[in-house]
Amino acid sequence: MKKENIVPFFATLQAVNPEPETELEYSTPFELLAAVLLSAQATDVGVNKATRRLYPVANTPQAILDLGVEGLEGYIKTIGLYRSKAKHLIEACRMLVELHGGEVPRTRAELEALPGVGRKTANVVLNVAFGEPTIAVDTHIFRLGNRTGLAPGKTPLEVELKLEKRVPPEFRLHAHHWMILHGRYVCIARKPRCWDCAVARYCDFKPKTPAPKN
What is the pLDDT of residue 213? Predict the structure, then answer.
């Protein structure tokens, strides 16, 4: 993507959705952290269904620790990989209680030290819970970075580092959500909806997908 197209690309996404938000349901930084941990290789819709059952019963590190692994599994068994996620979440809760007084830490290093929390999860928490201008590269952003030419890269980290250089500061806070939502609903994996895309004119992807015939 040409440098002169980057500002209008994000300005257009901003005009469509000025205050984008995560589709995961949460009310505290810990609820967000747990939801993001559970969302790996799962849909936000599926995670929300599980956390609607879990959080009224246990929505703090100590409360989830008190459930134990088997108790926690009962609430999240509808989510893929729920057994390993339950173990990771329990261990993460143990560390939060023992090392951080039950609070979610605000640094990337401390977040990534938690079991089941990688760079992407840490970036989501830093961005959504604490307002840091981080960009968490999931499958949607990885695809968008490469397909549009905005930030081509062979790995999520490579795409993230390019985005940090190319996304103008005024768009950095919400860039993560604009790109995720655009990739989830418009620039979809198999056949991008180019005919329905507000930023198609700025995108390097060719050939553009034609509108389906009625």
Answer: 84
